[in-house]
Write a structure and sequence with these properties.
It is a single chain. The protein has 14 helices and 19 strands. The strands form 4 sheets. It has an 8-stranded parallel beta sheet with strand order 8-7-6-3-2-1-10-9. Strands 11-13-14-19-16-17 form a 6-stranded antiparallel beta sheet. Strands 12-15-18 form a 3-stranded antiparallel beta sheet, with no helix packed on it. It folds into 2 domains: 378 residues, Alpha-Beta Barrel (TIM Barrel); 74 residues, Immunoglobulin-like, CATH 2.60.40.1180. It is globular. The chain is an alpha/beta fold and 464 residues long. The two termini are 37 Å apart.
Length: 464
């Protein structure tokens, strides 16, 4: 949802106090929700159907599946595809997150047959499909508003209101004190699994919906088939391992932004590594990202926020090699440096010739896919930091059995020479930059250019 930070700390505290939201840390929760095995080495790709092509339809997007297959991504997360409310809408086309009909298809994108054909084609090519789900609120002309006004939150005068603490005046806040509404919501989610065979949900404003609802919904849905359940929330707002497998890694994104300000160093990355370990129970993990639809439209492109192409590449290397499932957003893979309008048509500009960023991301996706040390879920590899002589260089090792990935990233905008103590990880590896076999010593001095990185891996890669 746009401007997620508009959920104020006061509102979150109120939800906790009223029992509508659990603040339990995932590290203390018993893990029972199993991450699908197909997520173990997957890169997630967020699809903005409206802006993806000139037509902005499922059929037009379908022509890009071959390109995305070559990129190597496995999970296609579609922003909401339901009809968008007209009443109180913002802009010309309205917010994707103002849902007029939970079981409908936005006619701007096509029809039910078009979406079914797209899912079937994608499944046949090995992709998994995740649908964005908006459980916190509906559009104002959703039939529920007139048929079931008691399903909504009301102000002191008895009027249905938008989510408190936000400027989301184009949506009506749902009342989770109503059991009939909860049942209808779960029925609507189940519809998409049963009818279209989707493989998971990215749950919008998940922390604003009571945890006991998500417990019931997730148990019901995952009884049908294994699903990836991603919360747009901090892990403390939901119960990782019970109702969600994963949550947003906003702190890591903020750490990346710090590179553009010159405030991020190895201690910050060390803190992120510790936080991930503390926030996620065994078998669960965050979704790491540099950008997404909210960041791009409201905070600026990754190039603006991080300050340079070099910083973006450094952040991407970390995003793909720290524990977690990495995300690529529509246009990110071609180096799009444009803020897409949120409420209007604003097509992605695809370059006429291949982008250097496409080759960059294709190789990172291959590393993530092929090296078991970078796996998530039950097969997750371990992570250990190693010593270096510079505080502006982060150095760590990912390991799973005999598979290893050694990583060193310069977090600063200045070239630096650094001594790294790889210790027991010394041995024969492939240099990620050249794909050539090299010997890595227990103690090694390397020179890293501004925002440069060095990766050694136990598997050779096909992309150069």
């Amino acid at each position: 949802m746009r401007i997620r930070k508009a959920l104020t700390s006061a509102l979150i505290a109120a939800l906790v106090l009223t029992g509508c939201m659990s603040a339990n840390s995932a590290s203390t929760a018993a893990s029972s929700l199993t991450s699908p095995t197909w997520m173990s080495n997957a890169t997630v790709y967020e699809v903005n159907t409206r802006q993806y092509t000139a037509a902005g339809t499922f059929n037009a997007f379908s022509t890009h599946l071959d390109r995305l297959k070559k990129l190597g991504v496995k999970v296609l997360w579609f922003m909401p595809i339901q009809p968008i409310s007209v009443k109180n809408r913002k802009g010309t086309l309205g917010s994707y997150y103002s849902i007029a009909d939970y079981k409908g298809i936005n006619p701007e994108y096509g029809n039910a047959a078009d979406f079914k054909a797209l899912v079937n084609k994608a499944h046949g090519m090995g992709f998994k499909i995740v649908l964005d789900w908006v459980a916190n609120h509906t559009g104002w002309d959703n039939a529920w508003v007139t048929q079931h006004p008691d399903w909504y939150t009301k102000d002191a005068q008895g009027n249905i209101t938008w989510p408190p603490g936000t400027d989301w005046t184009d949506v009506a806040d749902l009342n989770y004190g109503n059991s009939a509404m909860r049942a209808a919501m779960i029925d609507s989610m189940k519809y998409w699994v049963d009818t279209y065979d989707i493989d998971g949900f990215r749950c919008d404003v998940a922390g604003g919906v009571p945890n006991d609802f998500w417990n019931t919904a997730t148990a019901t849905l995952t009884a049908i088939k294994p699903l990836w359940m991603l919360a747009e929330s901090n892990p403390s707002e939901v119960t990782i391992g019970t109702n969600f497998t994963s949550a947003y890694n906003w702190p890591l994104k903020d750490t990346f932004n710090g590179m553009g300000r010159g405030t991020t160093d190895a201690f910050n990355i060390s803190g992120e590594i510790s936080r991930i370990a503390n926030d996620y129970s065994k078998g669960n993990y965050p979704m790491n990202f540099i950008t997404n639809h909210d960041e791009n439209s409201w905070s600026g492109t990754e190039y603006t926020r991080l300050g340079s192409v070099g910083a973006v590449k450094a952040g991407a290397v970390i995003s793909f090699t720290l524990p977690g499932a990495p995300l690529l957003y529509t246009g990110q893979e071609v180096g799009m440096n444009k803020m897409l309008a949120f409420f209007e048509k604003d097509q992605v500009d695809y370059p006429a010739t291949p982008s250097a960023m496409t080759a960059f991301y294709t190789k990172l996706v291959e590393l993530k896919t092929k090296n078991a040390a970078l796996a998530v879920g039950a097969a997750a590899g371990s992570i250990a930091e190693v010593a270096s002589t510079k505080t502006d260089v982060t150095t760590y090792v990912r390991t799973a059995a005999k598979a290893k990935v050694l990583v060193a990233v310069n977090l600063s905008g200045k070239s630096t020479s650094v001594k790294i103590t790889w210790g027991k990880n010394a041995g024969s590896y492939y240099d990620y930059a050249t794909n050539k076999k090299v010997s890595v010593a227990a103690s090694q001095t390397v020179t890293l250019p501004a925002y440069g990185y060095k990766i050694y891996t136990t598997n050779v890669l096909t992309n150069k």
